[in-house]
Amino acid sequence: MTVLHRLDTFLLDRVAQPCADWLSQNVGISPYRLATNLFLASAAVEIPRMALNLQRGSYAAALFGGLVLLMDTIYAHRANSMDGRKVAGMNHERVVDFMFRSLSTLGTAVGTVMSLILLALGQYLLLDAIRDVSNLTFLAGLFFVAVNRPPPRVRHVIETKLATARGAA
Predict the structure, then answer these.
(1) Among 10, 12, 27, 78, which is least packed by CB within 10 angstroms?
(2) Domain spans of the chain?
(3) CA distances from 127 to 49, 56, 94, 114 (A)
């Protein structure tokens, strides 16, 4: 098992899955709905970054920001369409997007280290902060898309069967 695979599995099983289960059971938010909102938040953060890059005359960075914006909206659409499929169990996106999720994790880690270095040197700019927020929200969305669907609440099913049995008796 590679280091990226171990990191991906750890983040999925120990961070994203418990958060998704808790949100699903206690708050009633689907992990796919949360992922859709995170992708859209990442896109919303990317728009001012593109404007700042255009103002500075950095057209290549603005073009890259446009591609990131397009990718955010495509993933938001995918996550929103997955919310309609109410299937419990292993999620195929967990396997399909492993390499992209791993590369995004690696890129976000490198970007965060670079931001910490820039912060220590006193060169941290608003553009860097916007990039970090956009990267982290997009990465969190990728992990929430890949979590397994939580099983239906067993206690509710048992209580319903008991109530039905009592009413029939």
Answers:
(1) 27
(2) 3-168
(3) 6, 11, 31, 13
Provide the Cα torsion 115, 126, 138, 106; round to 10°: -20
State how far the Cα of 37 lies from the Cα of 22, in Å rounded to an integer. 17
pLDDT in tens, 89-141: 555 555 556 666 777 777 788 888 888 888 888 888 888 888 888 888 888 88
Long-range contacts of 147-150 (CB under 8 A, 24+ apart): 147/12, 147/16, 147/17, 147/20, 147/31, 147/91, 147/94, 148/17, 148/88, 148/89, 148/90, 148/91, 148/94, 149/31, 149/86, 149/87, 149/88, 149/89, 149/91, 150/20, 150/21, 150/24, 150/25, 150/88
Q: Which residues of 142-163 are buried (b: 16+ CB within 10 A; e: fewer)?
A: bbbbbbbbbeeeeeeeeeeeee
State both tokens at 44.
């919303």
pTM of the model: 0.71
- The number of C-alpha atoms within 13 Å of 151 and in the hemisphere containing its C-beta is 5
